[in-house]
Amino acid sequence: MMANNNNIQSIVPKVNASRLILISSGALLGNTIKHYLQGEGYCTLVQQPEQVRRCRCDLVLLDAGSYSRERCLAVFPLVDATPVALINTHETLASDLLKLHPHIRGVFYPGSNREQILRGTQAILGGGDWLPRNLMQQLVDCYRQLNHSSTAIASLSAREIQVLALAGRGLSNADIADQVNLSVHTIKSHIHHALQKLDASNRAQGAALVLGHIEGGSR
């Protein structure tokens, strides 16, 4: 449902007060979004993602539909911790990028209207998020899985963590046994018990969980 003119006018000044950069290779879409945001003085359109390196702003709007996944990924190191909103993107790409980059604070699918873009932009500039319900549910599920994994890893013994970490780095049971001075039978037993505690279906999954925990803790 479209908001009435009074509601829209109450949103615009708050958006105007912040500087935005829109990255889009499509002039038509770029100019349409700028029109939605009521002017050019506070919304700069750039067509080459690399140009954003020289810009300072409060929010980057990335037209993910006009670039390859690789070029989209190249944007995030350039904007540092500046909030990013994806526009003109489909769920699959949005979900992929969202899992990799927590600074994505908003997602607008193709066909988002003026009211949605104004309200979403206002919410993000105010410190909030503007994500479709399905993507928000994916984030919640991911958080729950990570929380469960952290709890399970805490139940592992130091030896079980060591053995699974070595397995994750490509060592066979025999190689692990030689490195830690244990029998192959004992190594198999450690792996078996560790996988049970992690509720992991196989050695590769269990090793990945442990390595992710180790690497995450070293940052």
Question: What does this molecule look like?
Answer:
- This protein has 219 residues and is an alpha/beta fold.
- The protein has 2 domains: 5-131, Response regulator (Rossmann fold, 3-Layer(aba) Sandwich); 140-217, Orthogonal Bundle (Arc Repressor Mutant, subunit A), CATH 1.10.10.10.
- 58% of the residues lie in helices and 10% in strands.
- The chain is built from 10 helices and 5 strands, in the order αβαββαβαβαααααα.
- The protein has helices at residues 5-16, 27-36, 69-79, 91-100, 114-125, 133-154, 158-168, 173-180, 184-198, 203-217; strands spanning 20-23, 43-46, 59-63, 84-87, 104-108.
- Strands 2-1-3-4-5 form a 5-stranded parallel beta sheet, with helices on both faces.
- Helix 3 links the parallel strand 3 and strand 4.
- Helix 1 crosses helix 5 (114-125), helix 7 (158-168) crosses helix 9 and helix 8 packs across helix 9.
- The model is unreliable at 1-14 (pLDDT under 50).
Largest sheet: 5 strands, parallel
Q: What's the pLDDT, averaged over the residues?
A: 83
Overall structural domain count: 2
Q: What is the CA-CA span between the terminal residues?
A: 45 Å
Shape: elongated
Order of helices and strands: HEHEEHEHEHHHHHH
Give the proportion of residues in helices.
55-70%
Q: Name the CATH homologous superfamily of the largest domain.
A: Response regulator
Which architecture of the largest domain per CATH? 3-Layer(aba) Sandwich
Low-pLDDT runs: 1-14
Determine the structural class based on helices, strands and strand pairing.
alpha/beta
- SS strand fraction: 5-15%
Tell me the number of strands.
Answer: 5
Radius of gyration: 23 Å
CATH topology term of the largest domain: Rossmann fold
CATH class of the largest domain: Alpha Beta
Strand order of the largest sheet: 2-1-3-4-5
Q: Number of DSSP helices? A: 10
